[in-house]
Amino acid sequence: MRFIGKLIINLIAIAVLAVGGGLGSAWYMVEAGSRLTTRSFGPWTTWVAAGRPDADPYTRAHAARNALLPIASTLELSYLAKTDADGGQLQSVCDYSVTVEGMDGAWWSLAVFDRRGRLIPNAADRYAFNSDSAMREPDGRAVIVAARDARPGNWLPVGGGKITFVLTVQDARMAAAVQMGGAIKTLPTIRKLSCR
Asked: How high is the pLDDT of residue 94?
């Protein structure tokens, strides 16, 4: 009798571990992806099959869970960054400089969201800059500063804890290079300026 009781307890424990492990690994694959579904370039990560009809189940689940409507990844890619160039978590208590250069001929947009994927409310009603609206330096670079307090030039207001930068690039050549596993050297640099 005691043996059967231990056997039942062990079976229940194994079942709980199996179900928990399966759900945990599925959640991770949908939320963060893997080398099979995502590509990383420094702090920037993209889902390589987003928007394609032959996308894997994890990519489709990621898009559905986050209410994304991506254009085919052969034309446009969205990159997310949750860390700066030095690997530090992006926080609204810090000011960041994002330098966009080397994307001539491509349309791009840079926005900042909270970690739940929501726009950050602000009195300036400013949520993103793109290749058409960003002011340029004399050398052609666009320098965008994300900070709580107003800054001259390209300023994106932030607040409310951890933040995420979302870069959307429409460039078929860059998308093809990512699809083929090539290196991308033109993604923006994220530098921490200061923290409070």
From this structure: 94
DSSP letters for 70-105: PPPTTTEEEEEESB-TTSPBPBTTEEEEEEE-S-TT
Do 133 and 159 sit in the same domain of this protein?
yes
Give 121-160 pLDDT, tens digit per residue. 988 899 999 999 999 999 999 999 999 999 999 999 998 7
Same domain, 2 and 47: no
- Is residue 153 a contact partner of residue 165, using CB atoms and an 8 Å limit? no
Q: Is 51 found in the same domain as 24?
A: no
**pLDDT tier, 27 (very low <50, low <70, confident <90, very high otherwise):** low
Q: Are residues 68 and 153 in the same domain?
A: yes
Same domain, 144 and 53: yes
pTM attached to this predicted model: 0.82
- Per-residue pLDDT at 63 exceeds 90: no
Residue (of 88, 89, 101) closest to 189 by Cα position: 101
Longest CA span, the chain: 83
Judgement on whether residues 188 and 113 belong to the same structural domain of the protein = yes
Q: 155 with 147: CB under 8 angstroms?
A: yes
